[in-house]
Amino acid sequence: MPEPGTFAVDGRDGRVGRVMGRVGPYVQLRPPGGGAEWDCPPEAVRPASPGLVLRARVTEINREGRLPS
User: What highest taxon heads this organism's lineage (predicted)?
Assistant: First the structure.
């Protein structure tokens, strides 16, 4: 399982999320910049590529208001 705080991909639908931890048998992922967490079976979680991580980090920074829209 990826470490909490890192980005991962839900292999079922391709969504990227920050790993928040585990709840029961599931990995909890949160969309970049916030939002509702979702459950992902551990076998469907895969590491995010460097390009996806960069895109997710930019999304978070933009949502925090550090950069103009």
Answer: Bacteria
Rounded mean pLDDT, 41-63 = 94
Contacts for 22 with CB less than 8 Å, ≥ 6 apart: 1, 28, 42
Sheet of 16-23: strand order equals: 38-40, 26-30, 16-23, 7-10, 45-47
- Residue 49's SS3 state is coil
Report the distance separating Cα 12 and Cα 14, nearest Å.
6
The pTM for the full model equals 0.86
